[in-house]
Structure formats: C-alpha cells, structure tokens
Records
---
Amino acid sequence: MPVNVAVLVGSLRAGSFNRSVADAIAELAAPKLALKRIEIGDLPFYNEDQEKNPPEQWLRFREEIRAVQAVLFVTPEYNRSVPAALKNAIDVGSRPYGQSVWDGKPAGVISASPGLIGGFGANHHLRQSLVFLNMPVLQQPEMYLSKINGAIDDHGRLTDENVRSFLAKFVDAFADWIARTG
C-alpha cells in the first residue's frame, strides 16, 4: 500500500515550472508513494484573530495535511526565500498553537528555478521553518534544480532525462526516508 504524501507547490502560476516538477515526481513515485497536490493559493493570510471562527479554507487545508503521512515541498525562490503563499500555508498549518498539523511528518524539499543556483536560498529558508515545526527533513540528496525552464516543454512536461533520473533517485531516497522516520 503506498504512503500518502502531500505535495505543496510554492508557485501559484498556471505555467509553473515547479508544478511541472511536482507532476513528474508524482509519476516517478508511484506505486511506492501516492502524491497528492494540496492547494495553497486559496488560503487567506494567517491572522490569529480569525482562529475564533477559522476560514473554511484553513480547516480544509489542515485536514488534508493531517490525513497524510509525509509532505513534499516543491518551491521556486523569490528574493532568496520562499514565496509568500507557501510561508502562509506553513503558518496556517502550524496554528492554533499546540495543534500543528506538521508535527513529526517526514518532509522533503525540492527547489527549482530558471537561475543558476536552483533556488538554494528558498530551499534553506524552508528547511529552517521545518526544523522548528519538528519535521524530519531528508538531507541527501539535496535537490536544487537550476535552469529548469530548459528541462520543461511548452506543455509543462519534463523532457530532460538527466533531470528525470535525478528526480528518480530523490524519490527512492525520500521513500526510504519516510519508511525510517514516519
């Protein structure tokens, strides 16, 4: 039986390279891992005042994360950090205090960018938050995909076999990581 894994894509753009990477990973992960992309673009910004009557989107998101055994983050880099939508999703899931949906869930991080450093800054900023949230994060292989725009065709399909092979190794390591830590 496959392990259920939430996939959070940091980019909200319809033609997102990171969304394409997430789709390719989902294909590579089956049948070991059942990856399900969870929507974050509709989450209202976190505001503790709203916890008295939380928005429906927050409740839906928290339940979807509670239902999985692990989480894979696939993100671009915006200004050397994670996109606001992804940080907001992390905050929504970590609250109310003491009820974090992230606690103890094994995690993996992939960053992809058209730039040369492959989202290194976003990858490491995200890891800082995940440590605080008590999410054991896969350390190796590190996954920074540079020049990703050249690896994806106009239809959003991953066409670079070297990238696909690298992602396949990541999937195997991530599945093993989940089995050891989940």
---
Amino acid sequence: MDRLKGRGVIVTGATGIAGASARLFAAEGARLVVISRTESSCRDLVESIEADGGRASHVVADLTDGTAAQAAADTAIERLGRVDGLFNVAGGSGRRVGDGPLHTLTPEAFEATMRLNATSHVSVSAPVLRAMLQQEPDVDGLRGAIVNMGSVLASRPVPELFPTHAYAMSKGAIASLTAASAAYYASRGIRVNMVAPALTISRMSERAAADEATQAFSRRKQPIAGGFIAAEDVADAALYLLSRDSRSVTGQTITVDGGWSIIDAT
C-alpha cells in the first residue's frame, strides 16, 4: 500500500470518483490537496482521510472560474512543494443549465457545460504543468503525471437516454487535450492520460440511478459491473496511471465501462 508513498498529489472534486480516489491515494501514501467548490464536502473528505492516518488538506474554489481555479492550484502547489500527480475529476452534467440536443442548445448552456468540464481541466492543469516543468526528474526520470476525466459518452452515445451534446463535446475536448498534451510533454518527462468511465455511482448519476430505464440499460450494457460501476473501480484505474506502475504509459485512455463499449445491448 505504498504506490504513491511521499508523492504530492492534487485531486479536483471531493465526492463520488474524486472522493474515492482521494481516499485511495492517501491510503497508498500520497500527500494530498483536494480542490472543490463545496467547503463541507472538502472538510468531510479530508477529515475521513486524516482519521485513517492519511495526509490531506483542501482548498475551496469554483473551478468553472478560470482565475479562481488557477489561484487554487497555485495554493495547492505551494503546500505540496513538489507535485507528482494531478487527477482532474471535477465536472458534471450540464442538464441543469440547459444541455440537450444540439438544435435546442443555447450558447449559454453550451458555454456553461464547457466551463464545468473542459475549462476546469485547463485552468488547473496549466499551473501544475508549470510547476512540474521546474521540478527535478524523479528516479524514473519523470517530472509528474496528469490524469484527466473523460466519459464513454464522448465516443459511444446513447441518444435515447443521454442526449446531452455539450457534455459529450466537453469530454471529447478533454480526450483531444489529453492526446495533444501527452505528445508535447513526453520529452519533458511528464505523462498525461485519461480515464473514461461509463455509468458510475456518484452524485452526478443520482438522476439516472432513479430512472428504471437507465438502471435496466446499465444492467444490460455494463454486465461486468452488474449495473452502475463503483467509484472505487475508476479510482483504481487512476491510481495505476499516477503510480510508477504506468511509468512508460502516456497519451492513453483506460475505459472503465463494465463492458459498455463492446456490448450491443441497446
């Protein structure tokens, strides 16, 4: 249980996949800073990590605000001293701001959904990358690793259940960002990868989890998981991508989907 022993890691978000990941990273020895917009969620997560003997602190920031996001990242970097890993999790559905089929999508809904997902990744990653570029390489000759949060919906749409086109586009943008940045920073000793979950147990999925049609779909389409995927399963994939176990892996996506992408069960 020491795959991240002594390593400084930033996690954005404090519940669902972010919470499960932060707890796992701490159990694996990481020094953590959690960044999220909800004080109570941050506090509860950090307290639970510390109660289990882990090391963590938090910074409260609205990551859809680029200036606030970069300031929060700078604070986290200062606390850690050295940043070995970043897991960009914060984001969510744009339904509440009007995301939907393209012909109904307003510019305001589109922009809000992109800020929620893609902009938050860019705003936190930029200062982290600047810090990593200034760091001495570790024993593997690397300066750090970033894991981004994608979605199976970016490449495997389900129009009858998830007609959220801005969300799909935002996750597709993150996939492109992952590939482009992985290529650029590879020669500089920084790895960039992505995890792409399917339906996962989280606050974001509460609406879907309450819908019997979506539950039935998940049981058909995600048979390995028997329905919705546990957040801890996605955390395990992120741990691999941040640890030395994946030191020769960059520009890749681990799709954690319980079978979604290979099962024809629509």
